[in-house]
Specification:
The complex is a heterodimer of chains A (about 100) and B (about 850).
Chain A (H helix, E strand, L loop, with lengths): L1 H28 L11 H23 L7 H21 L1 H4 L4
Chain B lengths: L37 H12 L4 H6 L4 H30 L9 H36 L7 H23 L24 H29 L12 H33 L12 H35 L6 H14 L15 H13 L1 H17 L6 H24 L1 H7 L3 H31 L7 H25 L13 H34 L39 H9 L13 E6 L6 E7 L5 H17 L3 H20 L10 E4 L2 E3 L9 H30 L13 H27 L2 H24 L7 H32 L11 H27 L1
Antiparallel strand pairs in B: 1-2, 3-4
Classes of the chains: A mainly alpha (about 100), B mainly alpha (about 850).
């Protein structure tokens, strides 16, 4: 069970981060806070959450136990990299795309 | 009990080398049982595990082999019906002003074609394959919950028959397999057509949830001793990913269907813009299910490919770990793509970019698998046997579908091609390429194990070529038709010369495709009836599913493969297993016993006693069917009454789990004595409940998402809450949450101390919570007034249902105390009640916060 938990930790973190940034974006675009009217502050908030999330991914990768080698080590590590890659790639539009 | 890990060294005379790519178990060693006459063992096991005789025996069967085959056979019948409907569609579109079908009937037919292929063919087929194959491949005798398997089958059959009957009477769904609102609301789709879809599909999806729970538990808890997660067959990894996706992916669809049915039946305006609803809420919830659904269908097929390709190429699979990682990536990423089905509805730019990026990214793990399969073929010595034909057909077709998928993931192209025949072509390339071709490979591969017969050479190859030519002739051309602007889902079209000949060509090849499938079916029928007797393991396959007689027996293995056995090629362990040298040989106690192992290392933990043949699943499915039919008829009061027999049968179901007979530990192997499940934790039932709660949590998350979505997008004035947000309601909800939370403590004490008094306290607390909830519900605003009011009421109803179940479980515990079925050693329903009560407490608190916050927003 522990192996499974470590294996899915990276992608699970991506799922949380993706949902959080998407929710922030939706709230901003709904005009509750006005993404553009705040002079880009909302974008900064989203970018900040994204970067913090990337930091969490890196921390997770560093915290993964060394294990006994083989698949027990390889799979959690790969899961961690999958999460980091997915968060970096799917959320990088917070830096470049127009908001709404 | 002797710890299995401290057993003596593995013995056995025929120590052939381990299967390539699999390490021998390093720590777990279980001595072999002494050999016994194989025939006597077979008779002993057959007496216990076989179905009863005659028609009644078929109705009461709970065996995974019977039910898995029945799932697949029924799915094939629905595939044939869906195929015939597609021929009607192509006949209509062969000419621009086709008078073959009128618009109403055409709409029903294309809706039913999609719905049948998705819900009545693809999903049940993969469920059936998993149910039939997993126990054989993992080295056990049945799925974790045989009665649940049977219940799932009957729900599938009855739900499917309801939908088919509606088609025969001209009242089938007609709003597309996606049932978009407002097309499907009561105003635009009067009559019961849409209700047939909403209730029928939800009924059928009971089988999907049942299958997801038991596949998850079977893979995690019933693997052969020593078969670590990291060494189990890739097919099991794929099915584990699939079942988890089903647990999380189907609840949004169920939630959406319930909301739309409630809107249609009771005028609660979830999707009505005038009263604060939004049709896009339906699209979000539907595609939250709908896109993962594509991978739910693809992953089992990919599991088949990862099983067959190395066997047909005589080499271990290339990149086992990389493929497992790719499965993980697909499982997660597929839940981040759903909005690419909605690129044209007015999604904000940045969100388009998020989902476009995710849609492109998902091609990477898919490509990892494709390259691993190609590499395996490159490394090995591929044999061009019939399954390999279909595998090559998969490569050709699926890769093309994947590439057009990447094209559609790019927003500007998507806007151009949206809702055109190009998308129809893409989805058929993906689904037929990614599911039907692998399933045909699977059928030709496992037919000898199913029927014990060899195929008749020639016809299968001819069928393959006709299917391949027919398919590409039909659908490749549709890319062009779509790029020339022809919309989907239309029954007549302008007399554009560039459209007319393309459509006529597609129609002609469509009939060729159908002929090919008919030839394939004929080949299977001939093999099953006229084929010569097959040798055991005719392919020389390495997996455990072939380490048994052909056709497979009702119990799979006379003894279960131990750590020194499952890792060897199938042919080397057939005889030792048949002679009872493995674990838990025979059925000396006259009951259905399976070995339960730990999640990670598959260490033996206890022996589970599975239920025997029973008609209970049939009656329960029938009683649910009565409820569905009464809902369809609009007899809502009677439908409520129809839930009483459902509840009674569920109670009887629980009674069947009571301990009976000899409960003493079982000697599974020399020196390995294991307790039976009544005395062991965690049991299969607890694991199953945990899986069910994952799905339940996804359902709650879907409803909360709906509340949040409407809170963000609602335009126009939101009426102030007259009730629901007041101080009285807040106080009442706080007391409800407190009562349910105290119930957790009561359940825990009842479980730890085996205390009937604490069970009584738990029941009283739950009844108090129910009474207070009735007051809360009465004080909420009229749910027909505004969408937010309706969602508040639905969330409150969610809590009511959960507290009601918690109360029933506490009452059931009291009944078990009364019957002396709970003892110092046997916990009965208490652990399950405690977990359920805990979940209900958390859910109640979340709902209370959401209701109060939203009422005040």
């Amino acid at each position: 069970m522990r192996l499974l938990a470590l294996f899915i930790a990276g992608p699970a973190l991506w799922a949380v981060l993706f949902a959080a940034v998407y929710a922030l974006h939706g709230i901003g675009c709904a005009g509750l806070t006005g993404p553009e009217s705040l002079g880009g502050l909302w974008r900064l908030v989203m970018a900040g959450v994204w970067i913090a999330g990337l930091g969490a991914h890196v921390a997770l990768l560093r915290a993964l136990p060394a294990g006994r080698g083989g698949a027990d080590r390889w799979l959690p590590l790969t899961g961690g990299w999958i999460g980091l890659g997915a968060s970096a790639f799917t959320l990088f539009p917070v830096l470049i795309a127009t908001s709404c | 009990m002797t710890d299995a890990t401290q057993g003596a060294a593995s013995g056995g005379p025929d120590e052939s080398p381990a299967r390539p790519g699999v390490q021998e178990a390093e720590e777990l060693a279980i001595p072999r049982n002494p050999p016994r006459p194989a025939l006597a063992l077979h008779r002993e096991l057959h007496r216990v595990w076989a179905n009863d005789r005659g028609l009644w025996g078929q109705l009461t069967a709970v065996n995974h082999t019977t039910l898995g085959l029945r799932f697949m056979g029924t799915a094939l019948v629905f595939f044939a019906i869906g195929g015939l409907l597609s021929m009607l569609i192509r006949a209509q579109l062969a000419t621009h002003d086709g008078a073959f079908l009128d618009t109403e009937l055409y709409n029903q037919i294309f809706t039913m074609h999609g719905s049948i292929m998705m819900f009545l063919f693809a999903i049940p087929m993969l469920e059936g394959l998993g149910i039939w194959l997993l126990p054989k491949m993992l080295g056990t005798r049945d799925m974790a919950f045989p009665r649940l398997t049977a219940l799932g089958y009957w729900c599938y059959l009855f739900g499917g028959l309801i939908m088919l009957t509606a088609l025969l009477f001209g009242v089938a769904p007609r709003d597309g397999w996606f049932m978009y609102t407002p097309l499907s609301d009561a105003t635009h789709s009067p009559g019961i057509n849409a209700d047939v879809w909403l209730l029928g599909v939800t009924f059928v999806e009971i089988s999907a949830m049942a299958a997801a729970v038991e596949i998850t538990v079977t893979i995690l808890r019933q693997r052969a001793p020593g078969m670590k997660l990291t060494e189990m067959p890739l097919f099991a990894w794929y099915m584990l990913g699939t079942s988890v996706m089903m647990l999380v992916g189907f609840p949004p669809l169920i939630a959406a269907s319930v909301l739309l049915e409630v809107e249609r039946a009771f005028d609660w305006p979830f999707f009505d813009v005038v009263r604060g609803g939004d049709p896009l809420l339906w699209q979000h919830l539907f595609w939250l299910f709908g896109h993962p659904e594509v991978y739910i269908i693809f992953l089992p097929a990919a599991g088949v490919l990862s099983t067959l390709i190395p066997a047909l190429c005589r080499t271990p699979i290339l990149g086992y770990n990389a493929i497992v990682a790719a499965v993980l990536a697909l499982v997660f990423l597929s839940f981040g793509l759903w909005v690419h089905h909605m690129f044209t509805v007015g999604i904000p730019h940045m969100a388009l970019a998020f989902f476009s990026a995710a849609s492109v990214l998902v091609a990477v793990p898919t490509a990892v698998q494709v390259f691993a399969w190609i590499g395996t073929m490159w490394k090995g010595q591929p044999e061009l046997k019939l399954p390999m034909y279909h595998i090559l057909g998969f490569f050709l077709t699926f890769v093309m579908g994947g590439l057009t998928g990447v094209m559609l993931a790019i927003v500007p192209f998507n806007w151009q091609a949206h809702d055109t025949a190009f998308v129809t072509a893409h989805l058929h390339y993906v689904l037929i390429g990614g599911f039907v071709f692998p399933m045909m490979a699977a059928a030709t591969w496992w037919m000898p194990l199913i029927f014990g017969k060899r195929r008749i050479k020639g016809l299968g190859e001819a069928a393959f070529w006709v299917i391949l030519i027919g398919f590409h002739g039909t659908f490749f051309i549709m890319h062009l038709t779509g790029l020339m602007g022809m919309p989907r889902r239309i029954d007549v079209y302008p007399d554009n010369p560039e459209w007319v000949w393309l459509n006529l060509t597609s129609s002609i090849f469509g009939f060729v495709l159908t002929i090919g499938f008919a030839m394939f079916a004929l080949d299977m029928i001939l093999q099953a009836t006229l084929g010569k007797r097959s040798a055991r393991d005719p392919w020389g396959a390495p997996t455990l599913d072939w380490a048994m007689p052909v056709p497979s027996t009702s119990y799979n293995f006379a003894s279960l493969p131990g750590p020194g056995m499952w890792a060897r090629v199938a042919a080397d362990v057939v005889l030792p297993l048949a002679r009872g040298e493995g674990v838990l040989p025979g059925a000396p106690r006259g009951r259905r016993e399976v070995l339960v192992t730990s999640v990670g290392g598959a260490r033996p933990q206890h022996v589970a006693l599975l239920p025997g043949n029973t008609a209970l699943p049939l009656w329960l499915a029938a009683s649910i069917g009565v409820f569905v039919l009464l809902m369809l008829a609009g007899a809502y009061a009677l439908a409520g009454i129809a839930l009483i027999p459902v509840a009674v049968l569920v109670w009887v179901w629980g009674r069947g789990l009571a301990p009976a007979g000899d409960l003493s530990p079982v000697e599974a192997a020399p020196g390995l004595r294991l307790p039976i499940h009544h005395h062991a934790r965690p049991s299969l039932s607890q694991s199953g409940l945990f899986a069910l709660l994952v799905a339940d949590g996804a359902l709650l998350a879907s409803l909360v998402f709906g509340l949040a979505f409407l809170s963000v997008v609602t335009v126009g004035p939101v009426p102030a809450p007259a009730g629901g947000g007041g101080a009285d309601t807040v106080t009442l909800l706080a007391v409800v949450v407190a009562a349910v939370a105290l119930g957790v403590g009561a359940a825990g004490r009842a479980a730890r101390r085996r205390s009937v008094a604490w069970a009584g306290v738990g029941l009283a607390l739950n009844l108090l919570a129910l009474a207070l909830l009735a007051v809360v519900l009465g004080g909420l605003d009229d749910p027909t007034r505004h969408a937010r009011d309706a969602l508040r009421a639905v969330l409150a109803a969610y809590v009511v249902v959960h507290v009601l179940v918690a109360a029933a479980m506490s009452a059931f515990a009291l009944d078990q105390f009364r019957r002396a079925e709970i003892t110092a050693e046997v916990a009965g329903v208490l652990p399950a009640w405690r977990h359920w009560q805990g979940f209900t407490a958390v859910a109640s608190a979340l709902v209370a916060v959401a209701v109060i916050a939203q009422a005040g927003a």
